[in-house]
Amino acid sequence: MQIAVVLFDRFTALDAVGPYETLGRLPDADLVFVAEERGPVRSDTGRLALVADRSFAEVPHPDIVIVPGGPGQTPQMENEALLAWLREADAHSTWTTSVCTGSLLLAAAGLLAGRRATSHWLALDFLKQFGAEPTGERVVLDGKYVTAAGVSSGIDMGLTLLGRIAGDEHAQAVQLLTEYDPQPPYDAGSPQKAPAHLVEEFRTKSRFILT
Question: Which of 100, 123, 161, 178 sits at a 20 to 30 Å CA gap from 75?
Answer without folding.
Answer: 161
